[in-house]
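As a warm-up, study this chain.
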Amino acid sequence: MSLSGPCGRLGGALLILPALVVAQPPVPPPGEPDSPAATVDDAVDVNVVNIDVHVTNRRGQPIPDLAAADFEVYENGERMEITNFLSATAGQEEFWVDGVALEAPADTEAPLTVALFIDRYRTHRANLRRVESDVAAFLANRASNTRPVRFLLATSDPELTIRVPFTQDQAELRTALEKLREDLGKTGTGDELLRRQTFREIRGSYEDCALGGATGNEFAPDCEPCQDMWSGFLNAANRYAAETQSRSAASVSALGELLTALGGLPGPKAVILFSDGLPLRPGADLYHYIGEVCPERQTETDRMQNDWDETTRFNRLSAFSNANRVTLYPIDTGGIRASSAVDASIAGPVGALDGDDDVSGGGAGAQRLANVLVPSAQNDRLRVDNLQASLSLLADETGGRAVFNENRPARAMDELAADFGSYYSLGYAAPSDSRYSIRQIEVRLTKPRKGWRVRYRRTYILKSEEQRLADRLYAALKLGEQSNPLGADVTFGEVQEGAGRNQATLPVEVHVPLAAVTQLPGPSGSSGTVRIFLVAGNDTGERTSMRQKAVTLSAAQLAAQVENTLVVVNVDLPPGRFDVAVGIRDEATGRTSYLVKDVQLP
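Now compare it with the structure written out below.
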């Protein structure tokens, strides 16, 4: 029985019983209310939107010492009142979570959260070696920086792989990067090899047809390439477009999974994305090329370029990143790309044309045909623009910056890192009608200066409480981001035979210290409420949907000196290894523990 994708539901593979079984203490006596009492959260449920803003001068240097009065925020054209203001440039280290806070503020300084995401699936091997070396150098430079930064290392292979969970240990990250350089495996091929193969296929067919009987091939002497071979040219371009689209979609999917996990963490997050580029219009350069070779067909090939437009996909990805308060910093690892005219694999004569003075009227004629088949400078420019346009879109829409045409991006990475400690956070109360829709944001300076640039995320989605809880639980499951302010514990009972075929029933035992649960007065005495929510996932990254249940605990249980309450969740699972992520939330204070335990089912 197969599982669904990482963001989907398990189709019958995992069943959580609709009710939780409370083993102790006993059920309250008849007449005593068993519904949760009103909580503090119910009384102060104010949804706050936080917009992280970077203000720089014409040289890209941050502008310090701005105040709340220097900014105006508009949502869907309506001006919002700024109620919270933070200046990271002034050394403030407080962070907010969009919406109701899920955890009590930490007593210690909150470190910055930065994910390094290397698209190994679509990046050429030589570029991978270079960029992984540069990332290691960047981390070494950060070791002397006093500002705390937590880095995560993830790759697309093409599935998302967390190489190193969040850490402040740069040595651990550099060791992982060294292993990546030593073991490229099946990754690191990029799209360039496929592009060259397709060029050679089209050029070879054109050459054989154009030369006809002069080379003794199967084509007739009167073969016309742009008529007789046109369907073959289109088929080659279509295959290339479909394959590059599929590869790009796999990398975008892995990035989206990382954004989902990051969305569960408090405060602003950043992702530095390393990639050879993600085509905005897959196959555009090949369609343009056959249009150049056959100019009378260029109108047709221009239309085909637009048929493969992926702008909507990248707009959705940027909106998803904004919803998770993640700023994207793409770096084009392709660097300064060489012209196709100097690429020996796709430039100059091919096949029978190569040095054959007796073909088609001699060497001069052969050279003229070769010139027709070499991609033009305009085609090269289109190829680069196509790969970089999507990266620009992601950076612009999320408030980040993109780096292009850098063969060694180490210095550029240091410039990007300046953003991490020089931003302003503007908070305002979200309008009540914006909970489930994408909202447009505009930030203005009240006294703008010439050359100043303002960057910020252009949209947001205010998540429901249930979605925030699910995201935070997934961050624990995928990234190992655990915390336990309540002092709770999770164990597993004895596995039993499951109700379904090839399934086992796993009792998940959640131990909640009663003393950690806040008691509030009520009609029948003081009581507290905890909410248990649970997700299970297997080794392939697939997971269940979140299930939850509220449990009311009375002060009488404390008086009876009961130290812990035990909540048991029976889960039916197929054989294999699973991670079980459990959240335990004190509803009165919002303090929440997130624990992850692994289990192997026979």
